[in-house]
Each structure stands twice: as C-alpha cells, then as structure tokens.
Design brief:
The structure is a homodimer. Helix content of chain A is 45%, strand content 16%. Chain A is of the alpha/beta class. In chain A, the strands form 2 sheets. A 6-stranded parallel sheet of chain A has the order 5-4-1-7-6-8, with helices on both faces. A two-stranded antiparallel sheet of chain A has the order 2-3.
Chain lengths: 197, 197
C-alpha cells in the first residue's frame, strides 16, 4: 500500500505533530493536549500535498484514546459514509508515544533513517532552505518533518534534528501563526505546484 | 491609524470570510455558522502577513454577538493581558452583514473601489495568477480578497468578482483543504517573503 502511494506522489515525506516535549510561554518543557482541529486540518493538508503519514505524538494514554475515537468516527463510523474525503485524509494519521518511536517506525518503513527536519518560529543554527529541501524531496530522500504545538518544540528536539527550516516570514515582524497555518504554508512551500513567483 | 499601518506594511489588502452566501455539499446556497478557530487562526495569519482588516461576514444577529463576545474577551477582557499577541491579531477583525457592506466600507476607507478577488477550490473563468496579484499588491492597489466557508462561495459571488485566484494545487488531485489552511497558504503566496524556489 505504501509503495502504491509513493508511486502516486513520488515523494517519501512524513510529518509529526509533537505534543511532548514542547515549551510553554515561559520556556518550560510541557506536554500539550491534542485538539480535534489539529487532527482534521493537518490531515487534510497532508493529504492535499501527498504526505505519506501524519503522526500524532503524545505519551499520554488518554490522549491516544481520544485520537483513536476521532479516527474511528471518520474511518468506520457515520463520518466515513457522510464524508469520504475526510476519511481519505484521516487515513494518513498514526499515533505514537514519542519522537524516537516515530523515527523508528519511519526508519523501518523506508529501510533507512529519514532526514529529520524541525520547524521553528525562531531562526535556529542548523538552517536548511526551502529550496534545498524541495530538491531533496524530488530525489525521494526519506524526510521526517517535526512540528511543535504550544510555544514550539523543546530545544533538545531542534538540537538533535539534522536541520531546521527557516521561520515563515513577512515584513511585519509578527510571527504567531497557529501550528495549523504553519504546517499548511510549509507543505505548500515544499510540495505545492507553484507558478514562478 | 490606518495610514500608519499602511506605511508599516506598504500594502492595501483586506480579506473577508463569507458565511453567506456559500454553498453546501449539494450546491445549495446556505448560511454557515461562525467558528471560534476561524476567527483566531485567520486573524493571526492576517496579522503575520500585514493584512489590514479581516471582515467576518454574516447576516445573522446572533452570530454578530458571538463574534463580538470573543473579540471582547481578547481585546479588553482577561485575554488582552494574558496574550497581547492575540489581541494584536484580533484588532484586525471587523464584523459585516454582507459582501456589499464590506465593499462599501473598504471603498470608503481606501477612497476607491478595491479590486475584488475570490478564491475557489475549482478553476473559475476569470482567473488571475498569484504573480500578477503580487505585482498589483506591490503597487498598493486596494485589493479585497473573499474566502468562502462551508463548500465555498456561492456562484454569484465569484461571478461578480473582478478575478478568481487559482485553486491551491499539488500533484495528488485532492483539494479539500480547510478554509484556515487555504487562507494561510494564499496569504503566504501573495505576501510572504520567499526564497527563490
């Protein structure tokens, strides 16, 4: 099944939404709560842009159950017949208890460790450009893209990643996008079909 | 106040999220309900990319009250001190009862009728490219960008607009993005600071 999808899209990109370890307003490491709309919006964007799997990462058992209940409704419950397009999006969702687990699962599936990229609202030391990332995606290099909830990924996640994508910038200096917006924009920059700008 | 903001960003772009007239799954014209997260996510994206005003368009009085309650919480209530960045985003939000009202308000503010652009998940006849739109934004031509909730803008809105932006495309053929994702991506395409792709 994976092979067919890969043939469809010609890419080997997975994404993960991290609920632990992330930081709060004051920079402390916390675990955040899963939200229904993060599941839906990001699954729809992932499906639109040909992302293979969308991992929801949290160590909390009750949160795993919550995610599974939502998935069940849309995959086998009333939602599946009411809205098949939503089912097609949520089919990409997987639940994992840690970043390490996601890396193991993707490594096993791809047969090699993926390039691990983080995203941040602040410039990090190990920056990689969107253009270079697009180039690598085109070669079908396995890539795992990590997004943080709350006030962003804990520093150790950025430090252990291979590279970090630059913040989404405009000319206003304001950078408080929702994670749903940030994921959508970054997937469009990496995978969208663009005119020459 | 507007003049200062315009000087900051050098653009004259407003957006509106339309809750009536939009279409449902079967193509009938309906009015949709305002959602809290459409307010927040899109206000944050608007503030990030230097959009001047973000109009919430609905004819229903109870929906106007709901929007006003949310705005009050974040602008003058507890939310204003708890999260000043959110206040700065929601300060851009305005409530209007119809598309016509928004056009009148923007025309009055800008001293001329804005160029009216719609967005759609389907290709429309009167298409304008993202590149051409960026060029017009750079000349500070007043532009009003309309987004539909539910299954998209009613046909008459697209037909009376000057142009429609092309759908956001990838190679998958799936185009069921949330309106929050679509707005974020389109603002990034029109106003984001990009590397050469």
């Amino acid at each position: 099944m994976h092979k067919e999808r890969k043939k469809d899209t010609g890419i080997a990109l997975d994404i993960a939404l991290i609920h632990y370890p992330v930081i709060n307003k004051t920079g402390e490491t916390i675990g955040s709560a899963v939200t229904n709309l993060d599941l839906h919006d990001i699954a729809r964007a992932a499906r639109t842009f040909g992302v293979d799997h969308y991992f929801i990462v949290t160590p909390y058992a009750d949160q795993h159950m919550l995610v599974q209940e939502i998935l069940d409704h849309w995959q086998t419950g009333y939602g599946a017949t009411y809205n098949p397009a939503r089912k097609a999006a949520l089919d990409r969702v997987r639940i994992a208890d840690s970043v390490e687990t996601v890396i193991s699962l993707v490594t096993e599936q791809r047969g090699q460790k993926p390039l691990i990229l983080t995203t941040s609202a602040r410039v990090q030391k190990n920056s990689i450009s969107y253009r270079e990332t697009r180039r690598r995606i085109a070669t079908e290099e396995p890539i795992l893209l990590l997004f943080g909830t709350a006030h962003g990924l804990a520093p150790e996640v950025n430090e252990t990643a291979d590279y970090t994508l630059p913040p989404i910038e405009s000319t206003t200096g304001y950078n408080h996008l929702s994670v749903r917006s940030a994921v959508s924009i970054i997937l469009d920059r990496l995978l969208g079909v663009h005119e020459e700008l």
